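Team,

Forwarding the record for the chain on the shared tracking sheet. I've put the sequence and predicted structure together so nobody has to dig through attachments.
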Amino acid sequence: MRLFLDVNVFIDVLTKRADWEKSFDIIRNIIEGKNEGYISALTPAIIYFFRKRILPEEQARKDVIDSIEGFKIVELNEPIINASLKEEKIESFEDAIQFHSAKDKAKILITRNKKHFRAVKDEIELMTPEEFLKKYQF
């Protein structure tokens, strides 16, 4: 199955937020080839930004490399940027980029913030890591 992971799924794991193990299970199942994983080209930059605030440069870069292993990166191109800038159903530009990166590549967008994508739920299936794992019993 083709899954698109919102950047917050990676931040869960890196910061060990509540229920981070479920996010890690999703990432691991992509690394193991059980599903095909996609991320936005914006995701590595956001991960780096968060890690660089608390870690040395070398470690922040290593965390990015380790985090995105096994994922296909959706190119951040002019059509995605333009569609995201014009997107009226999603309030946040960053969330609009995640959505427009996901919608033609994946069946499911996995996110911690389903409410941010509520207005586009008819265009792509939205699930939290827990919902995905429960539905597909991984």
